[in-house]
Write a structure and sequence with these properties.
The complex is a heterodimer of chains A (224) and B (252).
Chain A lengths: L2 H19 L1 H21 L5 H21 L4 H5 L2 H7 L4 H30 L8 H27 L8 H24 L4 H30 L2
Chain B lengths: L18 H29 L14 H28 L2 H32 L9 H22 L3 H16 L1 H11 L19 H39 L9
Helix pairs in contact in B: 1-7, 2-3, 2-5, 2-7, 3-4, 3-7, 4-5, 4-6
Chain lengths: 224, 252
């Protein structure tokens, strides 16, 4: 079986388990929608939604992703399935990429729900092109999912647990959030593509870099 | 290299002899030379170097801030490379070097993060500007190395803790290239490079000489502290191995 097929098998297995339980995705989306509600409740009368929407969007997606990342390996570690997965003849790269791909689905769903909730709660009439938002949120979600998978495994073994995740992930992810928020704010403000393409390209570069570094280093986190 | 007990050069500290002893003497020598050079730089900054026309007297903090930043980036790079060597070769010396360099990165990073805002308060009118990408990325690098020590101390299996920390160190060092190009790629309040720019150094002679002297002092201090810390780490692990054979390397 090729690595690509193994990635698909692992991602599909994780997604089926995820949708059967449904707990993590529901919690992440609830968190993001409630955060948007609280933002609109506290900031709605003070600022124009279009001016702050990009920052709030990326902040909410980052926090929701990190809160979910700590749970990536919980079920498999508890019943020993992860150890068996590591003993199987699947390369560690394929395991990492499969798990990151499975993580990408909840993060993308959270990003989509957050964008919708912000537009709704802040009453942004023309929030910009959906395709442009997707072109920016997708690399962001890829980077967040890959980093969440890598650091989720580390925090799983730490006595500090999920409280360690922000300290590990934020320094690594701030460039992603910085360029993502910059590009998204220009989409919200209907700026031309020439102004959006620079940060969007950097965002794609960082996302690909995070996936590559994660795939390279995952082996060293799982070797016993 | 296994250090054995002996007396250190100045304070009677027992740090090892043989290779470890020689390394310790080298470390103390480098650190002392570094401190002496930095003291000389303070004299140069106070009495010799001319005042910069645009920024005035506050610019003089540059002779401490910039070399400290370079020492911090060098320490972080050494920590990242040593961590990669540890993961690849499974050699304990890589981990010991990474610990020593990561601690130095935290110390020199703290100097950068203290002197930068002091300069910014006068030059920008604010201690901190979140839009200033270089200062923000340096803070994040500092937090990466704080995370490095948090993860080492919070994993029950010391071997796993070292491997996890090594991964954190490698990821942390990847932000350094972005940090370097950030002032060129993005318009910010931070001054552009005056030494490493395509047209060559743009500083007047006395300023460049003071900066290079300070840079030499900070590099010697880093190498000295790094060497001393490496020898101490080696000694601690050796003592731990001999007293608790089943728990090697658990001290850090």
């Amino acid at each position: 079986m090729t690595s690509l097929r193994w990635i698909g098998v692992i991602a599909w297995k994780d997604l089926r388990a995820e949708f059967r339980s449904g707990g993590r995705i529901a919690a992440m989306i609830s968190f993001s929608v409630l955060a948007c509600f609280l933002f609109s409740f506290s900031l709605g009368s003070l600022v124009a939604g279009r001016d702050v929407a990009a920052g709030l969007l990326w902040l909410t997606v980052l926090l929701a992703s990190i809160s979910g990342a700590g749970r990536t390996f919980d079920a498999e570690e508890e019943d020993g399935a992860f150890r068996h997965l590591l003993l199987s003849p699947v390369s560690r790269h394929a395991i990492f990429l499969g798990k990151a791909a499975a993580n990408l689905v909840p993060v993308t769903l959270v990003a989509a729900f957050t964008l919708f909730a912000l537009t709704l709660f802040f009453r942004i009439a023309a929030p910009g092109s959906v395709a442009l938002h997707a072109a920016i949120l997708l690399p962001g979600a890829i980077g967040l999912a890959a980093a969440g998978t890598l650091f989720g495994l580390i925090s799983r073994h730490s006595s500090l647990g999920d409280s360690l995740l922000p300290a590990l992930t934020f320094p690594a992810l701030v460039p992603l959030v910085f360029f993502g928020a910059t590009a998204s704010s220009r989409v919200f403000l209907d700026r031309p593509w020439a102004e959006i393409s620079g940060p969007a390209r950097l965002l794609w570069g960082i996302a690909i870099g995070v996936v590559a570094v994660g795939a390279l280093l995952f082996r060293y986190l799982t070797d016993d | 290299m296994h250090a054995q007990e002996a007396t250190g050069p100045r304070h009677g500290m027992r740090i090892g002899h043989g290779n470890g002893g020689r390394l310790a003497y080298l470390g103390f020598g480098l650190a002392a030379a570094g401190v002496a050079t930095i003291l000389l730089v303070h004299w140069l900054v106070a009495f010799w170097v001319p005042t910069e026309a645009a920024q005035g007297v506050v610019q003089r903090i540059f002779y401490i801030h910039v070399p400290a930043a370079w020492a911090c980036f060098l320490a972080a790079t050494v920590a990242g490379l040593a961590s990669a060597a540890y993961l690849w070769l499974e050699d304990e010396r890589g981990d010991m070097a990474a610990v020593a360099a990561a601690e130095a990165a935290l110390v020199f990073g703290a100097i950068v993060l203290l002197t930068g805002p002091l300069w910014g308060r006068i030059a920008w009118g604010a201690y901190w500007d979140w839009g200033e990408l270089r200062l923000t990325l340096t803070l994040l690098l500092w937090f990466s190395y704080l995370g490095y020590f948090l993860i080492r101390g919070s994993v029950a299996d010391p071997r796993k803790g070292k491997r996890f920390a090594a991964v954190v160190a490698i990821i942390g060092v990847l932000s350094i290239p972005l940090n370097h190009v950030s002032v060129v790629w993005f318009r910010s309040l931070h001054p552009e490079p005056v030494v490493f720019n395509p047209e060559g150094p743009s500083l007047p002679g006395e300023m460049l000489a003071t900066l290079l002297t300070s840079l030499a002092g900070f590099m010697m201090l880093f190498l000295g502290l790094f060497t001393i810390r490496y020898v101490i780490e080696n000694h601690l692990r050796h003592r731990n191995r001999t007293s608790q054979p089943d728990n090697s390397g658990a001290l850090t």
